Structure formats: C-alpha cells, structure tokens
C-alpha cells in the first residue's frame, strides 16, 4: 500500500453506493492538510520506492550471478519494513481525515490491493524465517510481492493525480447532500 494520501468518503459508505463526487470534500481537504501523517506519508512513499529500486537491483544481481544473497535478503526485509510503516501511518492518516482506518469508498480497491501486497510481503518473511523455500524461490516470491506493489503504487499515483486535478479546477468540494 503503498503511496498515500488516500481518498475520500464517509465512514460506512460502501464503494458501490458512494455518489459520484471529487476525492475530497472541503472539510476532508482541511483535515488532510492539517494531519501530521500527510507529511509522514509524503516522506515514506518515495523512501519506500527508493528501497524498492535498490532491492530489485540486488535481487537481480543474486538471481543472475548467484552473488549477494545476504544483501538481497536484507533489502527485501527493509522493503517490507517500509511497506508496513507506510501502511500503519496511512491508516492513521485515513482515520484523521475520514474517520476510518481503511477502505474509504473512493480508495476501496487501492486498499484491497494493498492487503494483497502486504500478504505477499509477509509470506516472504514467513518463508525466509522457516526456510520453506530455497533462497532463489524466496527471492522470486519477493519479486511477485514487488509486482503487486508496483500495481498498487500506480493505483495511488492515479488517485493523487486525480486529487490534484480536482484541486486545480475546484470541483467536488461540497459535502454530501449539498450542491458543489
């Protein structure tokens, strides 16, 4: 789950029943801007991406040459740690802004995919800790987790772009039930 800030919606809305509107109401935008977690997410997202890029290079090196097993393994553990940090702080951010820890309607599917991303990263830690798979297979699992991370990051980047477009045209800022 990777890149926040996450979207809008009211607690209790289902994604299928949420009316068409912008990502943030004016009140949500104010809470977003006031939340300390907005800055934390803005720092953690690019940091996680940097750790991801280094890790991909280290994994590729190991898979191609057989060298650097420890570095590749440590890099995946660090990537998983940054993922979990961004997930926890993202939940705190979402609680500040929307009153829910996860699954705000406008970002429902991003959060669903985030759960799969986390599951794959945790699966890597399990196979690493138990030795259930050979190192090569462990790192291939890590790459599968990374692929899911890339999909999820793209989802969040598209939502971030949509939020910026909304802000630039000033649409969708009215609370539910009130005209924009």
Would you summarize the structure shown here?
By secondary structure, the protein is mainly alpha-helical. Helices cover 71% and strands 0% of the residues.
Count of alpha and pi helical runs: 5
What general form does the structure show? elongated
Q: How are helices and strands ordered from N to C?
A: HHHHH
Q: What level of helicity do the residues show? A: over 70%
Largest sheet, in brief, is: none
Number of domains: 1
Helix/strand/pairing category: mainly alpha
Give the N-terminus to C-terminus distance in angstroms.
31 Å
Poorly predicted regions are 1-20, 172-180
For this structure, the quaternary state is single chain
Number of strands: 0
Q: How much β-strand is present in the residues?
A: under 5%
Q: Rg from C-alpha positions?
A: 18 Å
Q: Could you report the average pLDDT, rounded to the nearest whole number?
A: 83
How are the elements arranged and paired?
Blueprint: H1 26-34, H2 36-65, H3 69-98, H4 108-130, H5 135-169
If you had to describe this structure to a student in words, what would you say it looks like?
This protein is mostly helical. It has one domain (26-167). The protein contains 5 helices and no strands. The chain has helices spanning 26-34, 36-65, 69-98, 108-130, 135-169. Helix 1 (26-34) crosses helix 3 and helix 2 (36-65) runs antiparallel to helix 3 (69-98). The model is unreliable at 1-20 and 172-180 (pLDDT under 50).
């Amino acid at each position: 789950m990777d890149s926040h800030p996450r979207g809008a919606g009211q607690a209790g809305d289902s994604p299928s029943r949420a009316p068409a509107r912008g990502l943030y109401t004016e009140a949500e935008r104010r809470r977003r801007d006031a939340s300390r977690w907005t800055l934390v997410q803005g720092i953690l997202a690019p940091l996680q991406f940097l750790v991801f890029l280094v890790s991909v290079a280290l994994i590729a090196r190991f898979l191609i040459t057989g060298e650097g097993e420890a570095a590749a393994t440590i890099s995946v553990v660090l990537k998983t740690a940054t993922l979990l940090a961004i997930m926890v702080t993202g939940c705190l951010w979402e609680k500040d802004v929307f009153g829910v820890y996860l699954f705000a309607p406008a970002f429902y599917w991003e959060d669903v995919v985030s759960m799969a991303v986390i599951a794959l990263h945790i699966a890597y830690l399990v196979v690493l800790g138990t030795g259930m798979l050979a190192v090569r297979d462990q790192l291939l699992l890590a790459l599968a987790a990374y692929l899911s991370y890339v999909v999820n990051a793209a989802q969040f980047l598209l939502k971030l772009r949509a939020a910026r477009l909304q802000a630039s045209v000033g649409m969708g800022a009215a609370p539910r039930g009130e005209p924009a």
